[in-house]
Each structure stands twice: as C-alpha cells, then as structure tokens.
Amino acid sequence: MAIVNLEGDILLCNAEAERFLGLRDVPEEERNTKRLYANIKDRERLFTLLGREKHIRNYEVPMRRLNGDPMWASLNVRNILYAGQDAYLVAFSDITEHREALRHLELDEIRFEKLYALSQMTQRSEAEILDFALAAITEVTGSPIGFIFRVSEDESELSLFSWSGEVMAQCGLGAFPDRHRLETAGLWSEALHRREPVIINDYQAHPDRRGYPDGHMHIVRLLNIPVFDEQRIVLLAGVGNKEQNYTEEDIRQMMLIMSGTWRTIQRRRSRAELAEARARLEEKVMERTASLEAVNHQLVEKDREREEARAELLRYERIIETNPDLISLIDREYRYIIINESCARMFDRRRSEVVGQTVDQLFGEDCFDIRLRPAIDRAFAGETVREEAWIEFPTRGSGTCPSPTSPSGSRATRRPTSPSRRGT
C-alpha cells in the first residue's frame, strides 16, 4: 500500500510496496509514480476515472519497477486527505505471473491460427506465404520490426525477401541492398554463422556490433533464427525492438511458425511438380492414343509407346515418392499396392513389409470396419472422400489402433505413444 499526492510523489508506503516497486535504494525525493507506468497514458486514464468515480477497483495496468523490470499490477485507488492535503490511497497486488500466463495462452492461440492459415495456403504464391509468415512472427513476439532472407544453396549469400512495413517507415536510407555476402553481414545474420537462434537484448552494447549507416533505424534488441531443410539453412528470419527482452518463449513461437511456413512451401512445390507431371502425363497419353489409332498395326510402334508410358509412370511414381505427404495406393481387396517412404516411416516398417498387407492387418479389424472401410468403399464408388480423425499408427509388433468414439466427419483423438505415431 502507498499514499500518493496529486503530483504522483509517493508520500508513504509500507515495506511490501518498497519491495514490490524497487524503492528501497531510491531517495524519497525521487519516488514518483510517473516513472512506474510502462505507458504514461495509463496514468492519465486512471486520473480521469478518479475524477469521475472517486474510487477505482481492480485497475490492471502494465508498469515498470524503478530498476526497469516489467510487471503487471492490479490497483485499488481512492481519494483521501493526508496531512491536510488531497492525496490517493493506493492498494496494489502483483499480477505479473497471471498476465504472463494469459499472454502465453493468447500467443498459443494466435500461433495455432497462423499455422492453420499457413496450411491452407498451398495454392498461394511463395511471396504471399512469406508475407503472411513475416506478419505472424512480428505479432507473436510483440515486435515492431521483422525481416526474412532467403539463403543460397551454399549458404554464402542472403537475398532479402522482405522487411516489415514498420522498418520501411523508420528507415531513412534511400535504397536497401537486396543481397549480402555472409562474411560481410552484421549481427543480424549471426544465427546463420552459429546455425542456431540468437538473442541480442542489448544491441548497442554488443562487442561485435559493426554499426550501421546514417538513416538506418535504431536497433535496441534483436532475435533471429535459421530455418532448416534437413541440414541446409534455407531461410533466415528475424524480429527486433520488442519492448521487453527476448526470451526462449519468443524463439519457440518463431521456430514453430517458420517451420510451418517452410513445410507449406515444400507442399506447394511438391504439388506444383505433381500437377505439372500429371499434365504432361495426360498429354502423353493423348498423343499415344492418337498415334496408336493411326499405327495400331505396327507392333514395333506399340512397343515403343508402351516403353514411353512405363517410363512416364516410373517418373510419376518417383514424384509421389519424394512428396512429403503420406500417399498410398490400395486395391479393391483393401491391399496396399504402393506406399511412399513418408507413409512407410509412419508405420515404422520398410515399404516391402507394408506392400501386400491389407488395411485391417495393419490397423486391426475394429478400426478398419468402423473408421477406414466405409470411407474407402465410398471412394471406390466414385466419390471424392475427405476424412479426418486422430489415430495411432501401428508400430512394429502391433496390429490394432484405437477405435474412434466420435461419429463420421468429426475428430476422434487418442494420445499417441510418441509424436511420430500420430497421423490423419
């Protein structure tokens, strides 16, 4: 608790308030609440409310202790007379942990929304996908600025994809270089040098800071992360100038969004290649049909066309094999004819161990009869079927999966034994 005069000077406070606000080593003449508000407009709003209502309860406001540490406080304030002068009696409590927990929940919700939106963007251009990702990483980290660079295959050169709009507004440079050599780049590329996320919470005092040209925006804090495709770095993403220090939580949020971004780009590229191959295959089939109608009496010509079709089919199968999505081909006896490597990994088996097996042998009769067979039969009947359900992929030595409890079309969720066993 504290008593504060109309000018904000702290006239009296108890020991808990001194500890909470960091006042113990602050001279009395310097104890003023104006220094405690993270945003001075919050203080102005509080005084406006006091002038109208005389007693304010549970006023939640972001503040800073006098040593600069951020905090959240819940204030109860009312007018009193103290030593013959108007003053305020303030009772407050620390709600920092509560607000941080709420913020974490909010960030998780935002991130889930962004990742879901990214998963639906496979028909959009890569530029649109990266623009969306840039806006997402600045939002989840609470950063006013951000950037994304593409990295060359040999990781020696970075090409600028985009700066956030706030950077452009604050920077007075006439032109931005769009390419940088790694050996000449500054601290903003440190994550590429180290091949891991890098946090710099005091950019100006960092010993390796090289400075920047006149007109460049002022950098206070910086966080950048590398985005990997297996062992190769493909993107460098960064954010800066958050009001508080960057933490491991900011790294986690950024890594999840940028990893989802790269998976979306990979799926987009795979589907584009698959569509192109399918179009070429259809074109080849039409050409072959026309040719066969004209020269069907020539067996040699038929053999040549057959070999072309076989080669094209092999190429088509190779494209399926390199697709990161789980793809399998099942015949009318519910037997696996073809599966790609991604699908085989989910079964924890070699492809040769899966091909020839029936669906019910792998998933168990209950799971097959209740969940899988109805959808497969509808597909064989000519219907395009989309089913979603959380299932546990069978591991080596098992032959069953949990029977879903939700009706068709809804999501049935089971806790998997490991993250690699979940699938849709």
From TrEMBL:
Coiled-coil stretches: 267-319
Protein keywords: Coiled coil
Annotated ranges, domain PAC: 57-107
Domain of life (superkingdom): Bacteria
SUPFAM superfamilies: GAF domain-like (SSF55781), PYP-like sensor domain (PAS domain) (SSF55785)
Alphabetized InterPro entries for the sequence: Biofilm_reg_signaling, GAF, GAF-like_dom_sf, PAS, PAS-assoc_C, PAS-like_dom_sf, PAS_fold
Annotated region described as Disordered, given as residue ranges: 394-424
PROSITE patterns registered for this protein in UniProt: PAC, PAS
Ranges of residues in domain PAS: 312-366
NCBIfam families (alphabetical): sensory_box
Protein name in UniProt: PAS domain-containing protein
Originating organism: Pseudodesulfovibrio indicus
